[in-house]
Design brief:
alpha+beta, two-stranded antiparallel ribbon, two-stranded antiparallel sheet, 3 helices, elongated
């Protein structure tokens, strides 16, 4: 999975580089990806992710990785993060009961 954010699903976009003479050539706009390690409080483990800086800001705003994953839609998540979310949901249901 190269150049795809594991939490938000952001991927490279294509467009044109436009010169002063208005010549257009193809180019790609890559998301600003960083390799980070986030801690899951409920699962008690660290998870290393390749996410965009915008997703990192969203995780911080939500109050951590656990809260972000609970609210996140499955269609945007990478397959290994879906498994993490599923384990998290099982853990929260056990806590709730």
């Amino acid at each position: 999975m190269a150049n795809i954010c594991e939490l938000t699903g952001k991927r490279p976009m294509s467009g044109h580089k436009v010169s002063h003479a208005n010549n257009k050539t193809k180019r790609k706009f890559f998301p600003n990806l960083k390799k980070v390690s986030l801690k899951s409080e409920l699962l008690k483990k660290n998870v290393s992710l390749k996410i965009s800086t915008r997703a990192l800001k969203a995780v911080d705003f939500r109050g951590g990785l656990d809260q972000f994953l609970i609210r996140a839609k499955n269609k945007n998540l990478a397959p290994r993060i879906k498994k993490l979310k599923k384990a998290l949901m099982v853990k929260t249901k056990v806590k709730a009961n």
